[in-house]
Amino acid sequence: MHHLVVLKLHVDAWLLFLFLQPPGLVIPVKRLLNMQDRSFLDTSVLLNLFDDDRPFEQAAARSLIGGPGSPTLVTSALVLANFYDQITSVFERSLEKIIARQALVDIAELTIIQIDSDLVFSAIETQTVEGISMQDSLSIEAAVISGCDRIATESLTHGEIIKGLKIENPSKLSHQNRG
Question: pTM (2 decimals)?
Fold first, then answer.
């Protein structure tokens, strides 16, 4: 997870750069910080990182975590909890809790969105309007408030746009890039 630390240091350096600019200087912050390249990762994608039984999906998920020029990765506290629960109890090849905890520590280096009552109420509205699960609605709302332009997931329809977010299934993206 060395790449995550490097990514965080890169973003921190840009924030310091912005802070030190003269007050009258207008900077297109989204372009400067590459914020249009912010991806929200849901539980399914995080689980794929550890799924040796699905090597194609695993490779696609791992391709999201890269070096320079990779998008800023975002997830939520709820996704972290769901990941830990599923990887230690539901996952076919469950991880030992100590290994799962270390994986969670590494994943927690991403930008983590906290779930609060405002986000829950927004998610209820999204669930009603879009006809999707509460879990997916919470991920959508967390992605929106964090400034993401896409969400990496297997649980929604690839290519669909919800609340301005492009839904991307990393496995389908890898397939499109190969073909």
Answer: 0.76
